[in-house]
Structures are given as C-alpha cells and as structure tokens.
Amino acid sequence: MSRYSAWSVFKNGLTGNRGWERAWRDPEPKPRYDVVIVGAGLHGLATAYYLAKNHGVRSIAVVEKGWLGGGNGGRNTTIVRSNYMMPGNRFFYEHSLKLWENLSHSLNYNVMFSQRAHVSLLHSPAARDAAARRYNTMRLTGSDGELWDLETLRREIPHLNYDNARFPIIGAAVQRRAGTARHDAVAWGYARAADSLGVDILQNCEVTGIRREGSRVSGVVTSRGEIGAASVGLAVAGNTSRLWQMAGLGRLPIETHKLQAFVSEPLKPLLDHVVVFGVGGTHFYISQSDKGGMVFGGDLDWYKSYAQRGNLPIVQDVAECATSILPCLGRVRLLRHWAGVMDMSMDGSPFICRTPLDNLYLNAGWNYGGFKASPASGWYFADLIANRRPDPVIEPFDLGRFNRGLNIDERGAGPDPKLHG
Amino acid sequence: MIRIACPFCGERDHSEFTYGGDASVVYPPLDAPAEDWAEAVFLRENIRGMQAETWHHVSGCRLWLIVERDTMTHEIRSVRPAHPGIARALGINVEEEA
User: Fold this and answer.
1) Minimal CA–CA distance to A397: which of A357, A346, A358?
2) CB within 10 Å: which end of chain B, N or C, has fewer?
3) With b meaning 16 or more CB within 10 Å and e meaning fewer, what string describes B3-36?
4) Backbone angle region of A201, left / alpha / beta, with phi > 0 → left and psi within -120 to 50 → alpha
5) Which chain B residues are within 8 Å of A302, Cβ to Cβ?
6) End-to-end Cα distance, chain A
7) Distance from A149 to chain B by nearest Cα, in Å?
8) Where are the domains of chain B?
9) Which residues of A touch B71 (CB under 8 A)?
10) How far apart, in whole angstroms, are the C-alpha atoms of residue A239 and residue A316?
11) Cα–Cα distance, A236 to A42 (Å, whole number)
12) Rg (CA), chain B
C-alpha cells in the first residue's frame, strides 16, 4: 500500500491521476479467523485497525451486510466533542478526542478533523450555572472548556437571533478543541489502514446466525458462507438486539430508534463553529460543511423504528429551531435528509463489555454519540478482545450496571430510551 | 406521517400522539426481588416486526391506546383502548382482548 503524501498528489497530478491504487482489497472470506468483527461501520473498522496495530492480531475479518460506512457512519452530523461530565463517560470521551487530534496522521488519511469549537447556547442563569459545573469538571480532568458572556458570543457569531428570540441568549458554554470531521473519510481511513495491516473487510456479507457450542461461540453464518472464529465482536448499531437473539441471549437494555440528519444547499462561509441550541424542549445542532452545506439535526423520531427513513414532523421541528436561532437561514433550501437507526440504551450510555458467552464481545448502545466515540470505542474494544478483560476506563460500560443501580445517565432522563440525547 | 385510528376520535396524524413504549412489559409485584424489577424496567425484546406498544393521544382525547405496529414498515394492524372499561363507559364499541 503506497502512502499518501503531498508528493504523491503532485506526482499523480502530473501523470493524469492514473497511478492511484485501490484503497482496500475485496477478499473472499477465509474459513476461519482469530477475530471476526460484525459490522464494518466506524466502530467495527476502528476495532479491527487497533487489534492489528496495538495488539498484533493478524487474522481478522470485518463482516458487513451492506457496504462499509453505509450505516450510521455516513448518517450522522459529524460532531466531535468531549463535554461529558459523568464518571465513566468523562475519561472515555476525552481519550477519544485525543485520538481524533492525531487521527489523520495515524491513518495516513485526511479525515478533515476541524477543531472549530462547539458552542452550546445558554438561555438562563440556571443553565449557565449547570454549564459552569460541567465545564469546570472538564477543566479539572484534563480537558478544555470555557464560558462566553454575551459580548464574546456576539463578537464570535454575530448573526444569531439576539434581538427577539423567544428564549433570549445570555451566553454560551464552549469547548474549543471540539469540532467536526468528514464522516466518510473516517470510515475509508480506518478501512484502508486496517486493510494494509492484513484485515479482511467482507462487504455484502450479512450475518444470519451465530454458531454456539455451549458457553462459547464457534463462528458466524453469513450470506457468503460460514466463517469460524476464535473470538467474535459485535459492533452493529440498531440491530444489536437481533444479533443478541441469534446468539440465544435474550433481551438487552436497548431499543432501536431513528435519528435524522439534514443538509442544506451549499452557502458561502456563514458559520465558523458548531452551534447547539437546546431549551424549552428543543434540541438542535448545526455546523457548516467544507462544501458549504449547513449540516444539522434534532431529536429522534419519537417512536421505535428499524426503518432507515425519517418522518416529516421532525423536519418541521428542526426547521423551526433553525430559523428561531439563525433567522438568516429562512430562505435556504433543504438539499437532503436521511435517517439512521440508533441503539438507544436505557441510560443513554454505551456498552463495551464481555457477554455471558466466553468469546463473544459486545460494543453497542451508542445513542446519539457514536460518531465522536468511534476512535476510543475501537481502541478499548480491541483491548478488551485481545486481553479478555476490560480496561478500567470502560469497566463502567457493562451490562450489569442496571442491576447494581450504577446507571450512567448523563442527561438525567431515566430508563426510557427515547429520552436520551 | 403515521396515521393512527383512535377508537375515540377517529384517524389522526401521529404527531397528535406521544409514544409510550413496549406494551408487553408487565411490572412485577412491589415486593418482588430487585432482579425482577431490573428486568422489567431495563430489558427489552426490541422486536423488528409487529409489536404491541402504547401511545397516548395527548393532543386529542388524552387516553392511552395499545397499537400493534410493524417497527420496520410502520404498518398498523390494530388499535384498541388500553383501558377497555373507559371505552365501555363512554359507549364506544371495542373488541375485548382475546
């Protein structure tokens, strides 16, 4: 695999761009691998990459029912941040942000990570106090965070609705190291880097069954034949419960809901930051892509669904949020919107853990937060599979936490999956 | 938009309703062991296909309904009041649960 560099861009530019190799192979499945990861999304591909790179595992397959990065990896609003406060989440997401900061170099692939700052608007003194607590916790635990007063916010983002908003803006809580990345490039970058370390990425290879031998799994049955495995890791969003039931393991603290994302027609540079608006029942986040499209999203579609298509009341909801906070968007046309199916967990936090079966491992329950989490998720899931024990950082992300009463409920919404954002 | 045929109000947009959740969940007696409660509160079948679920007609009659809906296609098979006694008292003809 040739490395990408400024020189290779220059050389291929002069030779008609005929010298580029394909970025990853399209291999036939082998009968057996040391590790089979189900799901070639960001989490599955990152896991395979770190298994090969950090732990020297050489026989790895990632099986994918569609095409790599075709699920939520390509259906999100590309926001990366670590403004989590709860024990368990705090260090995990901070580790993820640190991996993001060097990801393009590690993968030799430009994921277009842009630390453009994540700006959460504040609308009341109580919200400011809560934000001060959260962002001070972040500062005390090795991250960055600051509070902007109204004057600073007006200087940084002059065209928000400061004059006649239903909920007047009084300032913002800001994480400057946060930002966005190009989501497809993350999937392609991990796929290319994993492939160059010998990982077989098997697309159009749907898992239809999981072979069990007592308290172990021996492999997976797929649409491209049976594949044996010494260890199996599940990293599928939305369909985790179905795979769990294929393994004969019953029920999970997960419901499948769908979340939409939207992009407008391209505009000239308008918004330099990620802006988040959430007050009075609204939930809205917006940034501008490098192509100029306004990329934004809101809440779930509010009922359980496996359909990867969105409903219209949410389109209205986010349009109302957009024009209430950025009235200048009033005449901008919507280009596309799409929906992905989320694993919404009972406390809004994920699972990276062992399962009742010895060599089956679970990575699931990412709610709204899967994109930003993907590097650390792959990092620690690989460590779990390679060493057969959870790193202390991910010990809180197990399935037993509900029985112990140790839920990680960052939003304080209670055991109702549709309420966790 | 999903259309739900409310037995009290007629067919309406789903945006008039709020989604409750899985209607198959049965809570154990109050003095049941904590494990039984953890199961009922936290564990879900998460069916892909036809499931019974609760919806609240919050912008209409404000009564709870049990809707059988396909979670993949959003097709609705049946809608019935969650509390048939209320329907009977209101003189609405409802099929009793089998």
Assistant:
1) A346
2) C
3) ebebbbeeebebbbbebbbebebeeeeeeeeeee
4) beta
5) 18-19
6) 40
7) 37
8) 3-89
9) 256, 304-307
10) 28
11) 10
12) 15
Q: How is residue A337 written in tokens? A: 């919107």
Q: Do residues B34 and A405 lie in contact, with contact meaning Cβ atoms separated by under 8 Å?
A: no
Q: Round to whole Å and give the CA distance between B42 and B25.
A: 10
Q: Any bridge partners for residue A139, and if so which?
A: none
Compute the mean pLDDT over every residue in chain A, rounded to the nearest whole number. 96
DSSP assignment letter at A330: T
Chain A residues with CB within 8 Å of chain B CB? 239, 241-242, 250-256, 302-307, 311-313, 346, 402-403, 415-418
% of chain B residues with pLDDT over 70: 95
Q: Counting every residue, how long is chain B?
A: 98
| Phi and psi, residue A367, nearest 5° | 50, -135
Identity of residue A114? S
Cα–Cα distance, A420 to B8 (Å, whole number): 31
Token duo for residue A117: 């700052």
- Tens of pLDDT, residue by residue, chain B (98 residues): 999 999 999 999 999 999 999 999 999 999 999 999 999 999 999 999 999 999 999 999 999 999 999 999 999 999 999 998 888 888 877 665 44
Which chain B residues touch A251 with a CB distance below 8 Å? 39, 43-46
- The rounded distance, in Å, linking the Cα atoms of A390 and A392 is 6
Q: What is the ipTM of this complex?
A: 0.92
Contacts of B48 in chain A (CB under 8 A): 239, 241-242, 256, 306
Spelled out in words, what is the top-level CATH class assigned to the domain B3-89?
alpha beta
